[in-house]
## 1
Amino acid sequence: MDKFIIEGPTPLIGTIPVSGSKNAAMPLMAAALLANSPTTLNLIPRLKDIYTFKKVIEETGTSVNFNEDANSMVLDPANLNNTEAPYELVRRMRASFYMLGALIGNAGEAKVSLPGGCAWGPRPVDLHLKGFEEMGINIELDQGYVYASIKNSTVEGGDFTLNPSSVGATINLVLGAVKRAEKFIIRNAAKEPDVVLLCKMLAEMGADIEGIGTDTLTIRKVDELKGIEYSNDPDRIETGTFMIAAAMHPESDLTLTGCRPEQLGKFPDSFKKLGVDFKIDGTEIRIKSTANLQPVSVTTKIYPGFPTDLQAQWATLMTQANGTSVVTDTVYFDRFSYVPELNRLGGKLRVEKNKVTIQGKTILSGASVMSTDLRASVSLVMAAMVAKGKSEILRIYHLDRGYEQLEKKLNDVGASIQRVPQ
């Protein structure tokens, strides 16, 4: 197990290329299992979660060839002969549960372990299972596994409303329906870029999906899907994370390349209120920070609202703003494990239910801190980069799940981050 040793404070000056999206890549990988020929996916990031999901897929007999240097992956399900996704792999991350929809779509049956992932908050799969039952899929639970089956090769389908809207459930139900359901309607479907990208890929493969990009998806069965070459989206959460990291130091002048700014939803609206010099030019975003950072309160909402995956980073940024701010998470109510650790660095944060109040500006000082999830980890890295002195960030394996070459990218633009054994 490794840790980071970070010397601060350091401004970020230079250019960072944004990697492919982890959250979008895994649904695309799952979709490749539905094809009748190989699929090539581009802009696939080299992340622990990607390698884990690759192993999950390979368990089925599917061939997966990952060209790491080119960030390109070829998946061929021609020899898919096993419809089980085992606990020892699925428990490592929740996105492995997409195998349920993919295997139903491919083989009409599946045995998939209930998922694991970050150690915060209940993210139940009830919606996924209720949706499949509404579709006509027989679902049984036994000893931590979901058993899915259908009597015939197809099911009639149905009409299902997601309450609340869920990215994971939308993706899973789409994967299961495109080759099995005569007609299946998903209402209150998630509209996140990850969902839209998946649906567009499936449509290009030959799927019949109406309403892509809206909250109502109508899916009609097709007999087969073809393998294609398709590109992943850049990671909007990585984009937002680096924007926030740049804003934290008054001398930062950072340019991000390979972005999709239109996928940031309402996030830029909040960012503009900080008082930083912030410009978008096509696929590039430039941030020149300020010594007079304004406090900006935010409330997380489903897309296109302020992302819950950026709330820890935003609260960390607010420790450097000149005044008091409040960050409210309406998506997940208990995603505040980073707060005690930020306070160890000198922050003044107070949690009450699903809100954290941040008193700024505070001078942060180096300390040893530990995180419990992916976004909490990166928020501590960001804090350490503006803290005076040396910090230790423990349990950085969380970062390896979701940020490709994080320390290299940050060191290339002026950070002082060293990875050492813990």
## 2
Amino acid sequence: MSKDAVLTFTDKGIYCAAGDFYIDPWRPVARALITHGHADHARWGMGSYLATHAALPVMRHRLGDITAEGIDFGEVRQIGGAQVSFHPAGHVPGSAQIRVEVGGEVWVASGDYKIVDDGLSEAFEPVRCHHFITESTFGLPVFRWADQRDVAAALNEWWAGCAAQGKTAFLGAYALGKAQRLMAMLDPAIGPILTHGAVEHTNRVLRDQGLTLPDTTLANAELSPKDHPRALVLAPPSALGSKWAKTFGPQETAFASGWMALRGVRRRRAGDRGFVISDHADWHGLLWAIKETGAENIYVTHGYTDVFTRYLQDEGWNAQVVPTQFEGETLDASTDEPEGAT
């Protein structure tokens, strides 16, 4: 890659010299453009932040008092010698791909994305470009997502079975994006939906900006589990099996993640169930998105970078692995709450 390229990969993040800004930097910089609010993409310590209006509330909740500005999807902003615009990535509410054009050359940094319309996030929109930076979290052919309606049916069947046995159903999922997507899939006729503080605080932020979610109840220290029979509890994966979780008595645990497609991962997690659902693109989704961009040059970040890059090269793309500090989807996500939150 030429040092004069529109975007370069540095030890601080993805850098645009023409606009003197970074995209999703992992070290403090003066100006940061952020694709979405997950902790590996939106970090504390930047001089200023630019993100979509829909992503900013969660970022402020997580990062506190930051200097930040919002931008509409599709709005073109001139930053130095670069034209910049944000386009839906479909990953979580407010998530964006960032298009950067300099002298007629177009690059797109996709951040994290999925091509399935989950009915909650702004649906993914392919952006034509010459250079495309893609994740590869699930960049193996084994990762192929089932229809969301089938996953919802299996999820509700499991919850109803737990309720019939007098057990609380515990479901582990990211507090931002995955948890809200699962809520929309749950059948509230089965029982009440309870939430860990990290999930409920995120719910409040999203509700305040107009997102419609089912009714939920914060499962804090004041809540008595015996007063909420047949409940399902949504919590970050790190909270399952904790002292807090054990106060609910007899229970079953499940994880909702793309990693549940791998039998070995399911066994190691020691949960009772695994539901295969992800806010990242599967194998076919990654390939479809790349083809739709029309890009000749593909830069592969976090995930199965080597395997996925070799496949792209064999298929005729000019593809290469690039180093970043993005994490993609993990099963050990922290609560991702600001310090002091409960």
## 3
Amino acid sequence: MERRLEGARWVLERGMPGYPGAFDRLDDPPERLYGIGRADVLAEGLAVVGARKATPYGRGCARRFARRAARRGVVIISGGARGCDEEAHRAAVEAGAPSVVFLGGGCDRIYPRENAGLFQQVIEAGGAVVSEHPWEFAPLPYTFRARNRLIASLARAVLIVEAGLPSGTFSTADEALDAGREVLVVPGAITSANARGSNRLLFQGARPIVDDESFDDVLFDVFGLLKEPSAPDAPDGFAGTRTLRGDPVVEAIRAAPSTADELFAVAVDVYGRENARAELMSTLALAESAGAIARQPDGRWCARVPPGA
């Protein structure tokens, strides 16, 4: 049985008060918007999108930058998909800030179903779940591409935190460029399949987000928000990892997702073959417990941005 989201329900027709003016600039603006939650949250904000099969790095970056913007009063906009999208919405909820979920189907045909609880939290945090389709409209492949134009148009800037090739995220970037919005991209390792699309967008001229300071520059340029002082005790964005700064094994993982064999080769070069295995296991255990790295389902180790970042 489909779970129905609880909250105020509304329908906004084009031309009505509250209908986003940004949509009027589209070639095919939606004639109606169906929503649950607060209709007045449909304000221009920051879209945060990325891969559905996201790595811990991609999820962490989505969470990190969405939280940083939400805490400053910027509405977070995304599609509620698995991976990077859901992390952006979750970060806004944890910050007690509103976000907007644009669905591919109607609001009573939740997709993905497992995110129904998260969508309810979005509503309870002052946000909204929205669709251009009637309540029971089934989510279909073509509706998600169409949905992306709404995400891109309502956002003043679109942040892509992770995207492979091919990637549906590219359609959101294309829509953002067509709408005259700025496209922001978090770089990834050139050896990572999950970063091929992201890095290609950077090559094509997207604005790189390489750290908190570069992201704060965007918040100032696009939203007029002054910079906040940086946290003093969080080297490289990983709180509690001072003893790991400069460690060759951790730096190798930060450069690109790495297998155990690849990391063992690094450890041999640094510690010698006799001590390599013990030093490697010790470093991996310390870095994982500190939240600096995580193990992917395929067994490789990769960098991780902690939830509180």
